[in-house]
Structures are given as C-alpha cells and as structure tokens.
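sry for the spam today, last one i promise. struct tokens for design, 269 residues
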C-alpha cells in the first residue's frame, strides 16, 4: 500500500484512513494459501507470472524497488533470484512493522511457508523453502516510506535509478481517479532506469475491498486505460495478461478480473 491522496469524496479512503484503519493482520488473511481464500485465486495467477518473468533471464539486475509492498512478500519470492538488492516500501507504519517482523523472523510473523513452497515448486526447487526464505530475507536491504503522490515517492531519500520496479495492488488503491493514477505512474517511473522493467499487477473493475470490517475504496481500472497510460508514460508493453474472475458473488471485493503487466521503460534519446 502506498500513500493515498486526500479524500475529496466520502467513499474514497485516503492516506489518513490507511494509517488509522488498515489492519495488516486482517489483510494477510487473504494470503492463507490452501484455505480457498479470495487472495489465493490472485496468488495462483500472479505467482506463476512472477516465476516466468524472473526466471526468464531477461528481467534481472542489481536493484529492484517494490512500490507499495503492504505487509506481503509473495511478489518478491521469484525476484530475489534475479536481483542483488531489493528495496521494499510502503506508506503505513504498521505495514512496515509487519514486514520487519517477517524479515527478522520474529514470533507472531505471518507464516508464508505454504506460498513459498508453491513458488519453489513452480521454480523446480521442491523442498527448498528454507533456502528461499533465507535468500529473500538477505536480499531485502531496506523497508522505506513510500508516497506515490510525491514526484520523488521516497522523499526525502534519493535512490539511484533501479533496474526494475514491482508494484502489486497498490496504485488502484492509492488513487482517487484516473488523472491521479496517471500522475502516480509517472512519479514511480522516475525511480526506474531507462531500459529498466516495470512489473505491474492488480485487479480490474474493482471499486472496493474489505480488510476486516473496514471497506476500502479502489479505482476501477480497465485494460484499455492501462495500455494507454503506460504508453503515455514512456513504457513499451511486453506482456499483458488478464484473467477474468469466475465468480463475482463475494462481499469481500467486487473485482472483475486480474492483470499482470511486464513493460520496459523506453531508452532516453
């Protein structure tokens, strides 16, 4: 999760709402693999694409920045094999604390073992869960404050341009309208080297999601807009995968589909 703009509509949940009411432990309930959760459907889709992307040998380098990590690490499990250094980031301090708890292997940290086991199987490394978790913990060097509405989202820290950006389920939660989304994409793009890769995943047609009893707003996105805004921001789309949701009957979220995008930032002229 990244910082959300100031609320101008009653239904929009902004940054203050996230700081006050976003419960990382309740959110992580979506990621209990093998328990038929709504998040498991998203995990199955996204983890396969992360594995394909980061084991291809094409998307690699020294530094990867994860924009709006939330309290999750699933999006980085394959990436840690292809990058020497990962920087995680989020707007809310409670998400920082939850990430740090897992990184330090502290009691009460979320158990990612079933997800890690699945990723190891996808990568052909069955039984290597402990090694995978140790490698990711070693590769994540920092957890920083992130605000996608700032021209430098890591303000006041200035980072060298990264080889890759990952962002999962962040911008559609952080932006109240399509113009704000367009600006946020431009802001995070400034953190990426020309020729670097953007790995963007999220949900289509979603207007809300629940975290415990709290309803959070979500910006309704469509494939046509995503293709247009990426092109306008200087990205060349290399892969755009969509999976339509089978069953829309759920009180937790109203998304209609999931997307996974691999794009490359155009070289400077």
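last one done:
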């Amino acid at each position: 999760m990244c910082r959300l703009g100031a609320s101008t509509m009653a239904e929009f949940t902004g940054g203050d709402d996230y700081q006050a009411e976003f419960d990382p432990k309740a959110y992580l309930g979506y990621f209990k693999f093998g328990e038929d959760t709504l998040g498991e459907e998203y995990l199955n889709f996204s983890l396969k694409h992360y594995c394909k992307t980061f084991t291809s040998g094409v998307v690699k380098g020294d530094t990867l920045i994860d924009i709006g990590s939330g309290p999750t690490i699933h999006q980085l499990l394959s990436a840690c094999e292809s990058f020497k250094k990962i920087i995680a980031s989020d707007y809310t301090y409670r998400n920082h604390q939850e990430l740090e708890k897992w990184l330090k292997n502290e009691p009460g940290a979320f158990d990612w073992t079933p997800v890690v086991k699945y990723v190891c199987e996808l990568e052909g490394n069955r039984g290597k869960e402990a090694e995978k978790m140790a490698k990711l913990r070693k590769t994540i060097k920092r957890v920083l404050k992130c605000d996608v509405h700032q021209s430098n989202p890591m303000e006041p820290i200035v980072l060298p341009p990264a080889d890759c950006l990952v962002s999962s389920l962040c911008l559609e939660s952080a932006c109240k309208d399509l113009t704000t989304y367009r600006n946020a994409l431009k802001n995070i793009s400034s953190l990426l080297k020309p020729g670097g890769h953007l790995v963007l995943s999220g949900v289509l047609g979603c207007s809300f999601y629940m975290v415990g009893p709290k309803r959070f707003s979500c910006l309704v996105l469509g494939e046509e807009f995503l293709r247009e805004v990426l092109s306008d921001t200087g990205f060349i789309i290399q892969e755009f995968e969509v999976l339509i949701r089978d069953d829309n009957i759920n009180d937790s979220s109203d998304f209609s589909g999931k997307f996974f995008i691999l794009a490359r930032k155009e070289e400077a002229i």
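Residues 3-10 have pLDDT under 50 and may be disordered. ok im logging off now
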